[in-house]
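tool=predict chain=A
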Amino acid sequence: MWNIHTYDELPSTQSHARAELEQGVAKHGDVIQALHQTTGRGRYENRRWHDRPGENLLMSIVLKEVTPGLIEKMQFLAGVSLLRALRLLIAKSDSKFKSDRVRLKWINDILIDERKISGVLSDALWTGSSLRGVVIGIGVNVNQSEFDNGLEDRATSLKAITGVDYSLEEVRSVILAAFGNALDEYRSLQSLMFDVAHELEWMRTLRGFDLLAPDGTAENGLTYLGITDDGLLWVRNDMGTIRAYDNATLRIL
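tool=predict ok
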């Protein structure tokens, strides 16, 4: 199913895959992987993914055939499948690290003990009302053991928690297998969001978190209340006001 295209370096696997989709040369199942990105980004243009060459898995998956109801929720499907893959990789290691400490954080991050190990970025490309394709970007800290740019206490990697040197090919294979299984499993938004809500239940135990919305709106000291059937985030501030967000960046206190 997967057509792997590996590059030593790209500005961004997401931008490269999207450009190929726009040009009409991308195929369903294309996987664009780079050993290093010079301008890798998160969901917002000013958010960068910092990597050390050859140490992490950086890839973007092209899908041209997607169940209509799941197109706009692909980041959730990718997040659940990535969570399963990372838990499997950790469980297969010789370490005593408990894989249930790997958790999904709304909306698109995977955490280990509240440190980020992975993230997902999903872009849909349309021509009018016709879908041309979806590009799912996945970044996983695999063998990187040192983090700079103020990330020392906020990031981790597979190697950092298990002590195992991982093959990027093995990690990629496990993740793509889990993603392919999820595409087969989730044929409806309802079943997907049920599992997402289950995986997010741990956030009720947080002592609080801050939120920054795309429009610059910020809220502090929030409490997690759950998600809607569409995946919107329900939060309550310290004044008791309840709001729902469809997109935001969270920082755990």
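Confidence is low (pLDDT under 50) at residues 43-47. The chain has two domains: 3-199, 202-252.
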